[in-house]
Amino acid sequence: MTEAGTPAAGPLPERSTRPAPNLYNKLLALTGARLLVGTALLGATAWLTLGSGAEFVRSVEGLLYGIIASIYVASLISVFFLRAGRYLTFIGYAQMVGDIAAATGLVYLTGGAESIFTILYPLAIVNGAIGLSRKGANIAALCAAAAFLVLSIGSERGLIGQPVYLEHAAMPTPRLLLTLAANLSAFLLTAALAGYLADALVGARRQLKRAESELTALSALHESIVHSISSGILTIDSTQHITFINPAGEEICGRTFAQLRGKNLREDFPAFSDALSLGQLGRGETVFAHADLSERILGYSLAPLVDPGSPARPGFVVVFQDLSNLRRMEESVRRSDRLAAVGQLAAGLAHEIRNPLASMTGSIELLAGAPQLDANDRRLMKIVLRESERLELLVRDFLTFAKPKQVELARLSLSALVGELLEVFHPTALGAGLTVLREIDEPVFVRGDESLLRQLVWNLLRNAADATPSGGSVRVQVRTDKTEAHLIVQDSGAGISAADRGRIFEPFFTTKDGGSGLGLSIVQRTIEAHGGRVELESSPGRGSTFIVILPLSG
What we know:
Helices cover 58% and strands 15% of the residues.
């Protein structure tokens, strides 16, 4: 037997080539159950007629085997049509009629109105309800009532011949009426109850299907949100073992879920583990070591994650974001504010110094030309003039830093520009005992201000030369990376310590004796004015590499 499905539309044959899944499954199950009943009946009949020694009238044996054969034949025909997936409603009604016919035959052979097999009629009604819902139950009840009335009245009043072994005196009318009323009431009550249960089951199935659809949609939405959100989501159990991380989290930390699943939180996220151990739920910020060995600044939020299955042992969820770019932007804004303030001071100071400096320099030049000066005085005058020139260069850097030149962008060849400057730089490098290595791709075009870019490249070359001892090398590379041009200046000098790397682009910060500390600040400001960025790779004893990244020109 199977569960109830959608009510049938009627006994008209269905011509759809695709079976309705519910009705198809029900009819298939009922066909299987009918074959089992037929097989059991066949075994019982064979035992009674062959193995027990009891004598049966040949006609009775023939009828029993005929009923069993009809059950098999009807089941095979049903299977044939079910395989084609057609006429399902018609098959349902045909099976119902066949069940009532088989029940009537068995009732006829086993006592008529008083047969114990009248129980088969309610079973046929239940089968009708299972396959065809309330309508099938009502039609089955009417058919069963009609068949039972005709069989009972006909056999008791001599209209239908009784089997020889069951011949008996006619049943009194009151008793016959009572028997008929009891059985017909049972049929109708069975139909009403089976129909009600079938309808209730259909309603429950629809509600379950609706709930499953809503749950599937909710689960899909939840999964979509978790996989689409730009923040990382990490969940751990009560023992701090990782149970889930979303794709954004994998990208932020540089590790896949397969690599993190089941690992202790402390192995890859020690800051999160420390916060949980100290009970510091809520927001926080930490420095995180990415899989590529770079450092990222992560902002995170810790919260309990209660599992409904084990509320006494909650896990935790960590929502985190990569704040590195945001912090760099904040630092850039703060640096710009500092530069603006320092720039105003530098501009005013430079103008105030430049005028008296020019007068002093002119006066010293006049005094140096006096014929009465001895050699020592002339040497001192030259020192004053040299230092005046250095001070003039410093003031000029101040003015360049305080009032940068307006950027005039035009398409130019970065390869050619760097190549020309290397030709000028080469004699200086040879004089310092340096080897210049060049790797320049052709052509690499950018949009930039030629004079500013020349000053930028020259500053980087001079810095590299100043940082490299005699016998060292300076490597210069120009290459492209899809939409960006890379200018790389690498030296083999002493390198820059971790403490100094964070301040290397600050104005007036220098590690050179006599330096102004404005060269790299001007370099950074120039690069930012061109919409690019600069990166520094350095460590003590391994030299320094400045990487200037500029947008390519189409």
